[in-house]
Amino acid sequence: MQGQAQQQAYDRGITIFSPDGRLYQVEYAREAVKRGTASIGVRTSDGVVLAADKRSRSPLMEPTSVEKIHKADDHVGIASAGHVADARQLIDFARRQSQVNRLRYGEPIGIETLTKEVTDHIQQYTQVGGARPFGVALLIGGVENGSPRLYETDPSGTPYEWKAVAIGADRGDHQEHLEENYSDDLTLEEGIALALEAIAATAENGTIAPDGIDVATVSAESERFVELSNEDIEEHLVANDLLATEDEDDESDEE
Amino acid sequence: MQGQAQQQAYDRGITIFSPDGRLYQVEYAREAVKRGTASIGVRTSDGVVLAADKRSRSPLMEPTSVEKIHKADDHVGIASAGHVADARQLIDFARRQSQVNRLRYGEPIGIETLTKEVTDHIQQYTQVGGARPFGVALLIGGVENGSPRLYETDPSGTPYEWKAVAIGADRGDHQEHLEENYSDDLTLEEGIALALEAIAATAENGTIAPDGIDVATVSAESERFVELSNEDIEEHLVANDLLATEDEDDESDEE
Amino acid sequence: MQGQAQQQAYDRGITIFSPDGRLYQVEYAREAVKRGTASIGVRTSDGVVLAADKRSRSPLMEPTSVEKIHKADDHVGIASAGHVADARQLIDFARRQSQVNRLRYGEPIGIETLTKEVTDHIQQYTQVGGARPFGVALLIGGVENGSPRLYETDPSGTPYEWKAVAIGADRGDHQEHLEENYSDDLTLEEGIALALEAIAATAENGTIAPDGIDVATVSAESERFVELSNEDIEEHLVANDLLATEDEDDESDEE
Amino acid sequence: MQGQAQQQAYDRGITIFSPDGRLYQVEYAREAVKRGTASIGVRTSDGVVLAADKRSRSPLMEPTSVEKIHKADDHVGIASAGHVADARQLIDFARRQSQVNRLRYGEPIGIETLTKEVTDHIQQYTQVGGARPFGVALLIGGVENGSPRLYETDPSGTPYEWKAVAIGADRGDHQEHLEENYSDDLTLEEGIALALEAIAATAENGTIAPDGIDVATVSAESERFVELSNEDIEEHLVANDLLATEDEDDESDEE
Amino acid sequence: MQGQAQQQAYDRGITIFSPDGRLYQVEYAREAVKRGTASIGVRTSDGVVLAADKRSRSPLMEPTSVEKIHKADDHVGIASAGHVADARQLIDFARRQSQVNRLRYGEPIGIETLTKEVTDHIQQYTQVGGARPFGVALLIGGVENGSPRLYETDPSGTPYEWKAVAIGADRGDHQEHLEENYSDDLTLEEGIALALEAIAATAENGTIAPDGIDVATVSAESERFVELSNEDIEEHLVANDLLATEDEDDESDEE
Amino acid sequence: MQGQAQQQAYDRGITIFSPDGRLYQVEYAREAVKRGTASIGVRTSDGVVLAADKRSRSPLMEPTSVEKIHKADDHVGIASAGHVADARQLIDFARRQSQVNRLRYGEPIGIETLTKEVTDHIQQYTQVGGARPFGVALLIGGVENGSPRLYETDPSGTPYEWKAVAIGADRGDHQEHLEENYSDDLTLEEGIALALEAIAATAENGTIAPDGIDVATVSAESERFVELSNEDIEEHLVANDLLATEDEDDESDEE
Amino acid sequence: MQGQAQQQAYDRGITIFSPDGRLYQVEYAREAVKRGTASIGVRTSDGVVLAADKRSRSPLMEPTSVEKIHKADDHVGIASAGHVADARQLIDFARRQSQVNRLRYGEPIGIETLTKEVTDHIQQYTQVGGARPFGVALLIGGVENGSPRLYETDPSGTPYEWKAVAIGADRGDHQEHLEENYSDDLTLEEGIALALEAIAATAENGTIAPDGIDVATVSAESERFVELSNEDIEEHLVANDLLATEDEDDESDEE
After folding, report:
1. φ and ψ at A82, to 5 degrees?
2. Of the candidates C33, C138, C164, C123, which has an alpha carbon nearest to the alpha carbon of residue C77?
3. Do B25 and C16 touch (CB under 8 A)?
4. For residue A113, what are the CA distances in angstroms to A46, A58, A217, B43, D55?
5. Any contact of G with F, at least 3 CB pairs below 8 A?
6. Helix F111-127 vs helix F84-105: angle between axes, to the nearest 10 degrees?
7. What's the longest Cα–Cα distance across chain D?
8. Which of D251, E4, E250, G99 is the most buried (most CB within 10 A)?
9. Are G and B close enough to touch, i.e. 3+ CB pairs under 8 angstroms?
10. Chains meeting F at 3+ CB pairs closer than 8 A?
């Protein structure tokens, strides 16, 4: 481990190696991810669930404006944690890749293919000078040939495939909750419940307000990305005894 | 000049992550926003209101020369806070995007679409080297398919949608005033009053001079951007008991 | 406010934001403007007046060689304060824009349009790396659709419209003089007198030598830029009791 | 040898020589390799074996997502140690080169040719500015004209050919194990056993879990890259008395 | 590789503003001018005189090799003070501009036009990064439409028109001599005498050796650049009682 | 001569001159050469001999993989000392130049011509920014028009022609041995012996293992590059009483 | 004059002006010239003589390999002092310019023209960023229209014409010798003797070995560059009583 003073020498300008082989700009970009509110993905046998904690700076902000789950293609959704403006760039990149794939091959892009195109794009920003790394992690969930798939991209440009995963603030606690409660035979409904419980576990009072969270699914059957309405989310929260009243939050551009 | 600039950037204090995951140049650009005089947006059911505090360096300066609210297209207005010259670049960018949209699709650009094209443009200046971020926040207000919409862009390139929002100096106080007094059933007239009250709340003596403020509206019915004349503004100020005499101010290129 | 040492970190290389949201290179360029001799513009109902204090390094220097007022087009004049070589670049830029406008649209360029094309050009040099800002302010005066117009451009790239304005050395005193003595019903002759008085107010003995000053007008009627001869200037100085003998000055490339 | 302070001067920005003729960025990239989990290659008379230690951050991560051995072409496999995202770039580069060779010459690319194209690519990143070196070492194994071949690439861009080699964490211990136990007449089965034993030698309890390891072969006869299933690996572990239960590991983007 | 390298150079001690609005690199370039031996220009009613002090490092150096006055076109001569190699670049630039003018318009280039093309070229090197300013001042003298004209260019890229002017070492003393002795009704012969006297005034013993000086004229009548022979110069020196014996000087690349 | 501290200022980033006229990056690149194992060239009347000390990091490394002598064309061989990956780039460059020469002129490239093309390439990397110098020296040996020729290239890009020369570690001792024992009437066999003796002179016990050395020749008669087999080398070692057992060596990317 | 510490700030990276108007990188490049062995040029009425001191690192180095005088064209020779690899670049540049001239105009290039093309090339490297200056001085000697001409180029890119001149180590002493002994009526033979005497004057024992020196001539009659053989040189040394035995020298890349 480097001391404070030495560390400073390796974290400026272009992304370069420190004496112990680390890329500090990439590690600092991971810190930007941790500063963002959590997103959680759960893969079940009949679909993928994406859930995201979101916070509004003011009751006057439109809830949709802090949406953290986006449709990348009919069969793919993306949740993010970290620097919001960076997330938007990557999501737009993913959307363009999806469209190009449909145009070229006449079929929906594979979830793994899409993930790797995104991570290749991210890696370039960690090796070639003239730009900083992307300060955001993504969860890319969808259905490929009838099978639900769930991937994570991190700021180094590495893709990971998961059964269930958390990114952003309190990742440690969330992931622990998922590991303890995940089983391979979850239904999509149970997957939603698991994701909500994980988020609620670190929330104040252990409860969540419907407009403080985004939930979306891609079911294996429909192969369609669907965002749950506030009413749907409220039903799930009630059913799992997690319903709270509205909360407020501080200003931040990490979500 | 853009292409050339991207090549130039290989070892400057370009916008990079700090060890705790922050982008200081972006945060400093936010300070430039706070140095500017306030702008306020209010969305009502029958239209959007933009109001901006403006200060003249001298009684000999033409009031229009310190205008802080600009027409981006027939149905869209933009107010700004922060570095004036930067604001002008972004407003011109928005105007060009609006025109391109009309040419390509034969219809007015959507307010959200316009906002996201502007924020994509802003984000590039925070990630790719060779340029500094834009030191300005914008309020983009207009009507889309008959519905009033109000967006904010910040120096990180993040778009937010609002019912009512303040940017620039005294944002905290202004936003608090909006939150306490906003209701979903405001008329456009009441929206104007709310915006004026918010600005007056932090003004000396709690009053405003008509030529110290810009007000513009886009009504849901007309879908037309309209700037209020000094006489109109004075009527509103009188009606709300906010009328003051002229004030003076120090030299600054943040407004 | 920043300490001396911290400030230094933000004023080198590319123009970037300081922690309190300032662009030091732009502020330093404003200092270059203050180092230049004064220029004054006065807009009257029947025309615009530009007057400029000029100093010769030697009695052997040709007076025209230190001219500070230039014709940009038949109907537009430009006065400057600050770095002379920079001023020449911007004036040439303005001339080219004026010619292009005539070629494209078959009509003289608007004064506001011209000003904004110049300020857009200036702003680029404050945001994109690889060059320093322009160290000069301009007064652009002319007639547009029969109406006299007077604009100022500053090193940040912000345009201002004025009734009467001073740039360069002693701006504070000059502007105060203008504010105290300006009235909307000035004739062009009275405008010339006002400008000369303002300059004389800070001159030694309160008087001016004819070859120590440039004066030009664009009258609303003729829409033609006219430079006053030394004899004309002398008449105005005599009439206003401001005539002095020749003065000398130190070497400087700011005027 | 340089002291600590002097060393710091030579490891920033572009890759340059230190006074004693070293390239610190390249040496630091080698540290990134050592931070990664081990990969081992063994060449036998009837084929090449690649084996890689892999660790999962969580039991919920898909084992395939941490795969460290990749098929580059029908007859070539690549194992890596170090920065995962960098490895993926080089493996993609190798795949493209393989495809280009088939298109141009209608035959599979030679293992040595492929290795040298990869190392040329790596060397460029150590000499020309604007990018950092690749923080990864590769083992490239395959069959060329019926003969098994095994190469290593390091971050300097040097290719080495080996009978048996280890890269990544604990390289010293692994290589020692290989040197003591390698013989030229190993069968492919025995080669697999040797690779597993080497990895197990530094593992906790000297045993390995089947899903904690990747194994692949290219046999001289088939000239086909084949990844062993978990069941196959388990059989090999049982047969060599190396079978363990699952282990867990900390988060890292070096593998 | 050349092209690439030129792009990379934009981050170094580029010419920027100091906190008090000065451009130090330009001011330092002015020091380079002062380090050079003097050149003097005198405009008379019937022609322009250029005279230049020159020093040889050794009696074996060819006098022509230290010539400081050059023919730019049939009707234009240029004298310089400062960095010799830079002077040669600008003189070549001036020659090319003169030739281009003849080709385009079929007539000799105006002296003012030529000067401004040179100063525009110089200014670019003070604003755009990747190069240092020119460390040289020029005197451009010639005849335009029958009238003698004399211009100075300085390292900032500012043009000045003069009746009589000195650049280089001892400028202050030389200019003072010119101011005290210049009159508008000088003949060309008297102009030559004035220039020689000015140089002699600061020389050792107040005398000049013929081969220690260059003199050239462009007469209004001939409109032809003519260099005086050593014999001609000697005659002028004798006639004005300024003749000295040879002097020697130290090595320098400023002249 | 510079002190330690000042020296540091001149050896970073681009290759520039120190106050005493030295290019430190080039000198440091020479240190990289000295870190490499030795190569020796001997020119005899009937051919050129290249011999190179080589070390393997492990008995499992293929001897060919540490080959230090390469065929550049039928009639040219190249030995190297220093940074291996750099050597490979230059050798590839030499091969391409040789092929181009055959294509253009239908004949083998001259040894001097080839050497100078290589040194021109090397020099560019010492003068133009954006890359470091090559950290390697080469011996280029071959036959041109029936005459054996032997050249050295160094990191500054200077070519030298030799009768016999050593590069790399212990150059001083090796060269001394060559100078004391070289004579112009050596046969090719005697040249091989001389090269082996020189290397053995600094080896442990004064003996060499056949697989610890590369030897190649280009005879004047055949004009063909020939690498000696281990058996051939062993015969030579036995004949000269220099045969040793295998040695081992530490890890290094300089050879 | 600057202190030691301030000076350091102006001699790094790109070539820029110091506060007292100096270009340190150019001055340091001149130091590189002084580190090289001497070259001397003498112009006589019937031809030009070039002579160069050269030193071999070892008796095994081919004398031709340290040649310091090169043929640029049939009628032009070039001697150098300073960084050898830089000299080779400039000599190649001169050769290409000579060939281009023959192709374009069907006649040999003028010596002055050639010199100025070389110095223009050198000057670019002192003003535009991304490269260091050339660390070498050249003597360009030849015959133009029947007249012998002798030029010097220095690292600033300034051309000088000489009757007789020395560059490199001990320039002061050599030049003094030339000044004391040169006369305009020297024959070519006497010119050779003068050059040899000058070099011998600073040599050990005041004598020179034939293989420690290069001598070449371009006679006015033949207009052909001729290198003297060792035998010819020896005859001249004997005739002038300057013959010595072989000397040795230390390793250096300046000659």
Report:
1. 125, -145
2. C138
3. yes
4. 21, 39, 20, 42, 23
5. yes
6. 130
7. 55
8. E4
9. no
10. D, E, G
Would you call E8 an interface residue with chain B, using a CB distance cutoff of 8 Å? Answer: yes
CB spacing of F158 vs G84 below 8 angstroms: yes
CA closest to C33 among chain E residues: E21
Helix axis angle for G111-127 and E84-105, nearest 10°, is 110
Does E179 contact C11 at a Cβ distance shorter than 8 Å? no
Cβ atoms of F60 and D198 within 8 Å: the answer is no
How many residue contacts between A and D have a Cβ separation below 8 Å? 120
CA distance A52 to E45: 86
G253 contacts in chain F (CB < 8 Å):
26, 154, 156, 158
Interchain CB contact of G7 with E (< 8 Å): no
| Residue of G241, G238, G247, G225 lying closest to G54 (CA atoms) | G247
D130 touches B at CB < 8 Å: yes
Cβ contacts of G23 on chain E, cutoff 8 Å: 32, 83, 132, 135
Which is nearest to E170 in space by CA: E202, E139, E138? E202
Please check whether residue A61 touches B, CB under 8 A. Answer: yes
CA-based R_g, chain B, Å: 18
Contacts of E10 in chain B (CB under 8 A): 8
- Report the distance separating Cα F16 and Cα B50, nearest Å: 58
Q: Does E9 touch chain F (CB under 8 A)?
A: yes
Chain A: list its partners (3+ Cβ pairs within 8 Å): B, D
Task: Give every CB contact of residue G29 below 8 A, 6+ residues apart in sequence.
Answer: F17, F21, G82, G132, G133, G134, G135, G136, G155
Residue pair F11/F28 in contact (Cβ under 8 Å)? The answer is yes
- Which chain F residue is nearest to residue D27, measuring alpha carbons? F253
* Facing residue for F13 by CB, picked from G13, G28, G61: G13
SS (H, E, C) B108-177: CCCHHHHHHHHHHHHHHHHHECCECCCCEEEEEEEEECCEEEEEEECCCCCEEEECEEEECCCHHHHHHH
B12 CB near a chain D CB, below 8 Å?
no
Rounded to whole angstroms, the maximal C-alpha distance in chain G is 56
Tens-level pLDDT at each residue, chain D (255 residues):
233 333 333 434 457 788 888 888 899 999 999 999 999 999 999 999 999 998 777 899 988 888 899 999 999 999 999 999 999 999 999 999 999 999 999 999 999 999 999 999 999 999 877 788 999 999 999 999 999 999 999 999 999 999 999 999 999 999 999 999 999 999 999 999 999 999 999 988 889 988 889 999 999 999 999 999 999 999 999 999 999 865 444 444 555
E1 at the G interface (CB within 8 A)?
Answer: no
- Report how far residue G200's alpha carbon sits from residue G209's, in angstroms, rounded to the nearest whole number: 10
Instruction: For residue F60, give the nearest of D13, D15, D165 by CB distance.
Output: D165
Instruction: Give the tens place of pLDDT for each residue, F221-237.
Output: 999 999 999 999 999 99
Rg (CA), chain A: 18
Where b means 16+ CB within 10 Å and e means fewer, B223-237 reads: bebebbeeeebbebb
| Prediction pTM value | 0.85
Question: How many angstroms separate the CA atoms of G51 and B224, rounded?
Answer: 87
Could you tell me which chain A residue has the CA closest to the CA of B18?
A: A28
In this predicted complex, what is the ipTM? 0.83
- How far apart are the CA of A85 and the nearest CA of chain D, in angstroms? 23
Residue E111, SS3 per DSSP: helix
CB distance from C162 to chain E under 8 Å? no
